[in-house]
Design goal:
Length: 150
């Protein structure tokens, strides 16, 4: 049981770091889009985006997914998944976060090439997506609702 607890600590820390990146990089995109004609500013923001995405986001996502799979395995793997219906929805939200992560990478690369034409307003709205997903995940983890009966 001690391994489970340490793995859970790692999972929470990694998830928190990953969410920090997912919250912050779209905010950098807002600034980038709104100051697109300021070359000096853009040079600095490109470095920030890249370091945030590759040195915080990627390791945190990998650690989150790895520790999450480890927790599922410790809890009983497939048998646990069959008995925990709420986990299926949580994992769907995790897949959405992974897709969001890759979408952020795509936008970062577009900004780096100078071809992203989306507005600061778009990225302000885009920035709310991980918040909504986080609310759903926290609800599911805390309440573990019985979503259907065998």
């Amino acid at each position: 049981m001690e391994a489970y607890q340490w793995l859970k600590v790692l999972h929470i820390l990694a998830f928190t770091s990953w969410m920090a990146m997912l919250f912050y990089i779209p905010r950098l995109f807002v600034y980038h889009a709104e100051h697109i004609h300021n070359a000096g500013f853009n040079d600095v923001v490109k470095i920030q985006e890249s370091k945030l995405y590759y040195f915080i986001g990627w390791p945190a996502m990998i650690a989150t997914l790895g520790s999450g799979l480890g927790l599922i395995w410790i809890m009983g793997g497939g048998e646990y998944l069959r008995s925990a219906a709420w986990m299926h929805i949580k994992l769907t939200f995790v897949i959405l976060l992974v897709a969001y992560h890759f979408l952020c990478g795509m936008f970062m690369k577009q900004f780096a090439k100078g071809v992203c034409k989306l507005s600061g307003k778009f990225f302000r709205i885009f920035n709310e997506i991980p918040t909504l997903i986080l609310i759903a995940i926290v609800y599911l983890v805390v309440f573990q609702p019985a979503l259907w009966v065998k």
